[in-house]
Amino acid sequence: MARKKTNTEETIRAVSGVELAQGLGVREARGFWAEAWGQVLRKPIAVVSIAWICVVAFFAIFSPILASGHPLILRELDATGAVIATSSPLLRYLSSADILLLIGGVLGPIWILLRLRLPRSNRALMLLIGALQAGIISVVGGIIASMVTKRDVADWVREMEQGRLFVPLASAAIGGVISAVFLAVPTTGRFLVRLGFVAFVGLVAAWSVSVTWNPKLSNFDYRQREAAGEVRAVYTVIPFSPTQSSSSLYLKHPGTLMSEALPEDEARASAGDPVFLLGTDGVGQDVLSQMLHASRLSISVGFVSTSIAVVIGVTIGALMGYFGGWVDLLLYRIVEIFMAIPVLFLLIVAAAVLPRNTYVMMAIIGCVTWTGAARFVRAEFLKLRNQDFVQAARSAGLPLRSILFKHMLPNGVTPVLVDASFAIALAILIEAILSFLGLGPDGQPSWGKLLANATSDVGAFVWWLAIFPGLAILLTVLAYNLIGEALRDAIDPKLKKARV
Amino acid sequence: MGTYILRRILLMIPTLIGITFLVFMLVALSPGGIGASLKFTAGGQMDQTSAAIQQAYLEDRYGLDDPPIVQYVRWLGRISPIKFGTRDQVAPDGERIALPKALKPPLLWSWFADELPAEPDNPTHAWPTDEWASQGLDRKQIAFAKSQTFRGVTNEYARARSGYIGAKARFEQAVAHYAKSPGVDLPRAVKSDGKPRERVLRKAGPDKAAPAWPELAQAGEAMIDAYERAQLARADKLAVFRAKPYREAGIGIIPGSLSLATPDFGVSFSRSRPVMDLIKEALPVTLLINLMAFPIIYLVAIPSGMLAAVRQGGWFDLLSGATFIALLSFPIMLAGVLAIGYLANQEFLGWFPVSGLSDAAADGFTFLPSLGADGEWQRGWIVDRMWHIALPVACLTYGGFAVLAKQTRAAMLDNFNADYVRTAKAKGVSRHDVIYRHVFRNSLLPLITIFVSIFPAMLSGSVVIESIFTIPGMGKLTIDAINLRDRELVLANALMIGGLNLLALLVADILYAFADPRISYD
């Protein structure tokens, strides 16, 4: 740094050969990935794709407050019309995952964009691991909560659960244990920073678990109550929840106003006249609201299942490539089993027999699609294992973990990461196909599920249920494929040469 | 080459076992487990006891009361061409008759009897050959007499065995009642599905003073009686079976312990038909739509990929590049839904049929288009079939088309930079000849292997397409089988699809060796 500064201040002077060799005046080389990323950003089509993914991700994070049938502000009125109490049903009905995503969606970008002494790549890694920590706390908390609040639970559990301090203590314990594990992950060298970050994430996640301990049953009687003059409500942008259905709103065209759709007396009951911008589906649920909420499923399935696949594939591929011989032969049979059976066939079997929820779906997609990553890493490691730096690491007596993941992996992971973009596209497509076949997560809106309702056995065709979700799937998959293509062009020198 | 093919085929066996094991364990260990559909059909209006008896009977019949791993190994033994143990026999109607299964000893028998009824000494059965000879029966009549005898003991045994199964189910109910009754109070002795936990009960020992005991004792004694009867009937059947009423299946190698026979895929639980028959109906349909798609893919993709490579950087290249990647990303179900909605739906264009493989009246059609008696053109069976599969095939083609065209373009561009092309140009070979005689022929090689990556994707795609267009192919059969947890059908489907895929892989490798003299597998 210091040298650079003097360089600009000084006037022109003779440059010695030694200085030239040291690279005076030469632009500082950027890292490999920074270079590749810069090339991707130079392509307008890739930039548009990234922008589209950002839009979908934005909706994935903020859909609960953008589209909800619960009013943002609810003022309860007494008989004379004076306000007694003000509350926000929208916030009260958020789930633990909603709360964490909203907080993360606001604080995350700030954490990354802020100018701190901590390097940005370090902060990004911390954010990623923090997201994993919060996610695990939320999921484990949800599972434990549903276990102790089950109907046929033993009496002593019920008594304990009824205690006033149980919920905060239990969530604190869940958060504490999981955070303690994550404290051991070496995201940054500075222990105090790490401690603070992990503690903050753990606290927020435990708090979100405790406030959402008992799931509340939704009912959407606000409009009736408003008509009766009991309350006054202010709604958010799209005043419908994805699960809010009404038989009188069955299959309305896009752009239908509520007052057109409902019978005269009911329409008068609703203050304001919201519009079904993308129409409604066969049970009278708003399509736009469902599509926004479904974007979370698509984005998260894409990311999480690809991460699972990469972790499994890299581990198995590294073992195969490094050891070779009978380890390779044995493990390659497993790879071959997964390759010999069409992925979708195995996924249909798994999705049909396992519980229908989002996490299971992510896990099975990840556990079935890892073979690509394994083969890439295997091929790279077979090349790398006889190179000098690996031999040096081995002769220095480093542990296997260090040789595989610290020395070899950074040199062999590029094809996997380039392929990851295509893998995400494939995972999103698979999720949509499984949902389309009726094997998707239960009780959750999904683009594939909406698309499946577009045609029926009796031959009816509802164009707005085909076009809008179909386009959403198409554009998202296309965007990931285009980003992958741009990334591959930037990294693969062989293809670049062929293009000349 | 021959050794190579043989080795590849031998390596397929562990892979196929792996595939079926994976699929089987996935289904078996999932909530509900194997044969969950049987539980459903056994419900209905029946009272609890007869439902339990029905259930126990079905479980016994299909071997569902064994642990999953035993069920899998037994299945493997049935489909293996190399058989161990006593050979099956084949009835004239083609039914496979195996050695009768052993009976499971009654649970908790020591509570009610000092010792289990001993297995009866194996009576031997001899055919009255001399008597038949003296009556002057011919071979056909003798075979009929033998089968009559066998049917007789089989029916007797079936009755005795189901009597035992029923008594056992009744006893299990009595145990559940007994364990929960006051005075005994062993709620842990009953599983959530109503079956008793034998270990817990045996540890607690019988409580003969309990008010529920007489009922239990009665059920237990009835069970042991039924067991004894079933053992006797089984011994009879075994004796007749050993006297070989029918011809034995396959070829014996070591008598009584090793033989070769054709695989037996069993009978589907949900449809009560041999699995092989179901697959014979479904597989040709899937192969038809997939193999129809292949020539179309190759015919369209290769020229367009070539054109894109030759005019590299031109408008066709740019446009086709964008089109290929858009087609690759186009969800197959969206294509199917749009095709049905706009091309097949009567409210829009209505040019194509919405579903099925042929017209309802197609059985009466002539094969080729013909002029009917009433002077109207009849489209004929073949045209009708084409008309029905046009949309499904179109939906299957575009994905593979994009992959193949991109690969063609990349292969051509790779070869343009090769040394031999420069040499050819330097010699003065015309541009046309360089492209078509040198580059194109060399670029064809990698396209053969693409077949391998397109084929599984198309099989997957046809699952979706078959469910959209309601075509009775392998995809639909698989989804039905899985939803009903039909063990034989799921396993046979996994085997078929996996085998088909591996075979495609092998064919591609062999073709590659034929096309490229540089490659040799020896």
Question: How is this fold's topology laid out?
Answer:
The complex is a heterodimer of chains A (500) and B (522).
Chain A: H1 2-9, H2 17-22, H3 32-41, H4 44-66, E1 73-77, E2 83-87, H5 89-92, H6 96-113, H7 120-148, H8 155-162, H9 166-183, H10 191-211, H11 222-227, E3 231-234, E4 256-257, H12 258-261, H13 264-269, E5 275-276, H14 287-323, H15 325-340, H16 343-353, H17 358-368, H18 371-384, H19 388-395, H20 400-412, H21 414-436, H22 447-452, H23 463-491, H24 493-499
Helix pairs in contact in A: 3-23, 4-6, 4-14, 4-23, 6-7, 6-10, 7-9, 7-10, 9-10, 14-15, 14-17, 14-18, 14-21, 16-17, 18-20, 18-21, 19-20, 21-23
Chain B: H1 2-29, H2 36-41, H3 48-62, H4 68-79, E1 82-84, E2 89-90, E3 96-97, H5 129-135, H6 139-180, H7 198-204, H8 213-242, E4 247-248, E5 251-254, E6 258-260, H9 275-310, H10 315-329, H11 332-344, E7 370-371, E8 377-378, H12 380-416, H13 419-427, H14 431-468, H15 474-483, H16 487-515
Antiparallel strand pairs in B: 1-6, 2-3, 2-4, 5-6, 7-8
Helix pairs in contact in B: 1-4, 1-16, 3-6, 6-8, 9-10, 9-12, 9-14, 10-12, 11-12, 11-14, 12-14, 13-14, 14-15, 14-16, 15-16
Q: In words, what does this structure look like?
A:
The complex is a heterodimer of chains A (500) and B (522). Chain A has helices at 2-9, 17-22, 32-41, 44-66, 89-92, 96-113, 120-148, 155-162, 166-183, 191-211, 222-227, 258-261, 264-269, 287-323, 325-340, 343-353, 358-368, 371-384, 388-395, 400-412, 414-436, 447-452, 463-491, 493-499; strands spanning 73-77, 83-87, 231-234, 256-257, 275-276. Chain A is mainly α and 500 residues long. In chain A, strands 2-1-3 form a three-stranded antiparallel beta sheet. In chain A, helix 6 (96-113) packs antiparallel against helix 7 (120-148), helix 7 (120-148) runs parallel beside helix 10 (191-211) and helix 18 runs antiparallel to helix 21. Chain B is mostly helical and 522 residues long. Chain B has helices at 2-29, 36-41, 48-62, 68-79, 129-135, 139-180, 198-204, 213-242, 275-310, 315-329, 332-344, 380-416, 419-427, 431-468, 474-483, 487-515, and strands spanning 82-84, 89-90, 96-97, 247-248, 251-254, 258-260, 370-371, 377-378. In chain B, helix 1 packs antiparallel against helix 4, helix 9 packs antiparallel against helix 10 and helix 11 (332-344) packs across helix 14. Chains A and B meet through helix 15, helix 16, helix 21, helix 22 and helix 23 of A and helix 1, helix 10, helix 11, helix 12 and helix 14 of B.
